[in-house]
Amino acid sequence: MKVELKDISKRFGNVHANDRVSLTVEAGTIHGLLGENGAGKSTLVKVLSGFISRDSGAVLLDGKSVEIKTPADAIARKIGMLHQDPLDFPPLSVLDNFIVGKTGTGLIDRQRSLRQLQQLSTHFNFNLNHYETVANLTVGERQQLEILRLLSLGVSTLILDEPTTGISASQKTALFKAMKQLASEGKSIIFVSHKLEDVEELCDRVTVLRHGKVRGRAEIPCPDAVLIDLMFGRELAPPLKPQTRQSEPALQLEKIRVDTDRLTLRLGDLTAYKGEVIGLAGLEGSGQQQLLLMCAGLLRASTGQIRVNGVEMTHESYSKYLDRGIGYLPADRLKDGLVSGLSIQDHVALRTPSRSLFVDWKETLKQTVQAIATFNIRGKPNTLVERLSGGNQQRTQLALLPVPLNLLLMEHPTRGLDIESVLWVWQQLIARCQTGTTILFMSSDLDEIMRYSDRVIVFSGGQASHPIAVSDLTADRLGQMIGGRLSDTLEPSVIS
Amino acid sequence: MDIAQITPILATAIATSTPLVFACLGETIAERAGVINLSAEGTILLGAMTSFAIAKTLEGSGTVPSLLAGFAGAAVVGAAIALIVALGTLTLKQSQVAIGFVLALLGASLSSFLGNSFVRIPGPTVPSFKIPGLQNLPLLGNLLFQSDLLVYLSYAAIALVWVYFYRTRAGLMLRAIGEQPNAAFARGTNVVKMRYIYTLIGGAMMGIAGAAFSLDFKAGWSHMHTAGYGWIALAIVIFGGWNPLRVALSCYLFGILQSLASVAQSSIPAIPSQVFNVAPFMLMILLLVLTSSEWVERVLKLLPSPLDRTASELIRSAPPAALGKVFEQD
Amino acid sequence: MTKRIFYYQLASIALAIVFITAIILVVGASPPSVITAMWSGAFGTVGQFARVIATLAPLLLCASGLLFTFTAGLYNLGIEGQIAFGAIVSTLAIRLTQDSLPPALVIVLAILMGGVGGTLWGLLAGVLNVYGRINEIFSGLGLNFVADGLALYLIFGPWKREGVASMSGTEQFPESLWLPTFGNTDASPIALLIAIAAVAITLIILRGTYFGLRLRAVGQNLRASYVLGIPSIRQLLSAFAICGGFAGIAGALQVLAVFHRLIPNISSGLGYLALLVAMLVGLNAWFILPVAFFFSALNIGSLQLPLDLDLESSLAGVIQGTLVLFVLLARGVSESLRKPSTTPLHKGY
């Protein structure tokens, strides 16, 4: 089935997630949708699969305009989507997961479904235990199951959203083989990815998105340099940050390994110096967040040691981390950082070290008014934090950081902020660095990383590069590393 | 005690657990779809009162029609309360606990206030009906097939719910909705609508449970006639691991505890009889608290692994993952 | 914004009144005569008004305690058991000391021990919740059954009255151990003072102290408060303990001021009624006084209904439940109208 998306636009608040994006996928081809995190790829495919309603534009299947408002509509149009996080039912068995949502007789004919599942598994050489509980499966196996299920529904358009994140090499090989086989059977496949090598290996054609717009299209094979140009732009922003780095080490990590459900982060050794800013680049979910949480004392390392300003912190409690002047700014400000329902003033009081039983509201008010002035927050002391704009929430979070601040860990410090706020926030942060604060921050905005970092660490699939001085970075090199080619350009840092 | 003595105790236990079976199955259905209907106490009371009032009023038109009307009325009342739960929590997104709890109290008060003129008067009751043939089966006949239609219906209900959950497509989707509503939505289901339907069905069954009390197993009506049974029903659903079969068995376990209490009452005069009336409730809840805490898991981990697995499958199970949570469609 | 919520609340109360009127009409009574009967039942004589006050005291105590658990985001359905266990421990204290200590001291001790008992019972639910991961609703309900069972056992077993044990409770305590009352009525000034002190303490703690502020933060967002450095487990357990303590004192007052003995079901549903009060009040703690007073008046006033109109006194529960239900629903309506569906930015695009 030929799939055409024409001039799709979608806004979330003041962000243009898709700005007149068009995409044509011929039947029997694999079409890559390439772009950084936040480029608008997921929005576009979710419009096609009925999860998001578009603001304007048209969807055409085999030349005919169709309305897809819900996932049910998409299924009826034979469009299936494999989500980045498998949308399945962990407590149910593989076979039951395969059956959920399929139409048919009222009573389930498990034998028949089993035969169908077996047949499909054999066809694609997938090896699934049909009675195993899905919770015990790897992400790769859950994907395989989901693909088989979509095929059994008879989909003729298959969308894969970042399918190679979190699966093993052999699972990836099997996946790609299956995709090629499906394309040769006449299905149209949309492959969403930010990984150059995957796109080059699998796709016939590629469309590159950046900041919600189509930046270009290319036939594969296509030189890396061309794709990287399209993805990241030709020019990287020049570094803006003045020299604030001192010679004393502030954060010292040794042989760190962090295990979480989805990812093992192998970091090896790392030293960050006082006043230094280290940018953590990479696709979301490559291990940056684990590093930040671990340094903040919110996630335990499985092995290794962490020292801050020479003090051993490995086994200390989170409150000790706070006492040592370690601050953490989460990306999801209203979920992890600020408490909805409480005002700015309440937050200021919460962060005031309390010797007394009673809150001195007069004094707190004074501090709050001062903080609001210093941090240029557009809000009153009694404004509830959820009523503040994103920028002002971030300013509030900054106002709440401990003083003195030895180490600051930030996730997407300026996400969703207007340009003025971005400049202002970084001005404040650099002022902190001048007093010796060390900053580690992750961002999917490469310009931000280039502008404000002293050194950059690139993450990919739980591995991290050596820190690279920004002056040594080029767009090409950074793009390739982010796209998963850490080892082409750099020895990955000590893999324990 | 020999078999001849135990069988009647068990038979009584099974029969008297029948209303609870209906209530717990109803609650299981709603909770499996992700909705805690905490109003059980009020729903059962109001169902009991309504059905008795209807049956009593219509007594003149014959026992069977009046009983049928009574049961139907109780089902409607139960579904109506469930509709408020669904409206308040699914559409208006208020806390399931808050809405359910208020309805539990409100239902109880309403039953007392509206049922005042029906207190302690005789009314129609479900006649006993022994199943020809089956009643003469050795052991099982005495145990299972010498009561009335309602008991046999409860057997059917258990089987039906079990088959629905585990053998039908709709039942599979019902379980899916309670686990991962987002994924169910992705597979083309209208999650909110299905939750409405299952909450209403569950509520209707709880209403019927009330009728089963007042028209059969605790015939008649008095103030707070079925007090405590709604709360215990909520506990039994957890104890039964949201599995209709285990839930039903838990109901029978509760019935056996009650029978034993009444037997023990006569043999242990040192303990006052009033204690025996509440003892089953206490024991049931204690069992629940013990088996559902994390400590059990830790203790089970000490067992050799095959044993541990069987044991934990027997006494433990996780609640539906989305139970009590608001479903937000992106 | 708040003005609109206010109009929704008014509309919901109007609807609740319509519903209640309909219920009254269903049983064939006339609403005006019901109002008259209830009014005279609550305020007709000094004695009746005193009973309103006597009910108000434990209700205020429990509702104050529940404000702590609500603020922490918990539904403490175990409050009935906390009242009962407080009453049991309080009775135990009286039984142990009444022969050896002066009455005044016994009374003080009994009240304190009631508080201790309630605190323990509340903490038990809290520990099961925090460390056993058992939902506080079910641990609470379970502990209610256990406390009731324990009271029954004591009344019919070890503490039974000389001769026949009965549902009327243990042997009555000597009058020297009764809390003094206003004249010859049921209302005890000491109980009322304790209750008002509890309300005041609650307001001060929740509004004015770091503890109250942290409790609010924990109740709103456990994760973010942890990130902000608040010891959340300690906060949750404290909320259970304080609520249990207040409920336990209410239990002690039921023993000392109302029944003068331990009876089965000594909480008389006051804990659940207090839950309704706390739900209705929401976070506007000031409203606790008028709402609790109104609910007490309903409870006492409704006792007149069987006498005057041959109606059940549970109309009080109907009115209370209906009001709370409609207010909750109205809250839902105004919230769902206010929030147009927006996809948050951080969900990825």
Question: How would you summarize the topology of this molecule?
Answer:
The complex is a heterotrimer of chains A (496), B (330) and C (349).
Chain A: E1 3-12, E2 15-25, E3 30-34, H1 41-48, E4 56-61, E5 64-66, H2 71-76, E6 79-82, H3 94-99, H4 110-124, H5 139-152, E7 157-161, H6 169-184, E8 188-193, H7 196-202, E9 205-210, E10 213-219, H8 224-232, E11 249-259, E12 264-273, E13 277-282, H9 288-296, E14 303-308, E15 311-312, H10 318-323, E16 326-329, H11 333-337, H12 344-351, H13 361-374, H14 390-399, E17 407-411, H15 419-434, E18 438-442, H16 446-452, E19 455-460, E20 463-464, E21 468-469, H17 475-482, H18 486-489
Parallel strand pairs in A: 3-8, 3-9, 6-7, 7-8, 13-18, 13-19, 16-17, 17-18
Antiparallel strand pairs in A: 1-2, 1-4, 4-5, 9-10, 11-12, 11-14, 14-15, 19-20, 19-21
Chain B: H1 3-16, H2 18-32, H3 40-57, H4 63-91, H5 96-114, H6 140-144, H7 149-167, H8 169-179, H9 181-186, H10 191-217, H11 229-239, H12 244-267, H13 273-292, H14 294-301, H15 305-315
Helix pairs in contact in B: 1-12, 2-7, 2-10, 2-11, 2-12, 3-4, 3-5, 3-10, 3-11, 4-5, 4-10, 7-8, 11-12, 11-13, 12-13
Chain C: H1 2-26, H2 31-43, H3 46-71, H4 79-97, H5 103-130, H6 136-156, H7 189-208, H8 210-220, H9 222-227, H10 232-259, H11 270-281, H12 288-301, H13 304-309, H14 315-338
Helix pairs in contact in C: 1-14, 2-3, 2-12, 3-7, 3-10, 3-11, 3-12, 4-5, 4-6, 4-10, 5-6, 5-10, 7-8, 8-10, 11-12, 11-14, 12-14
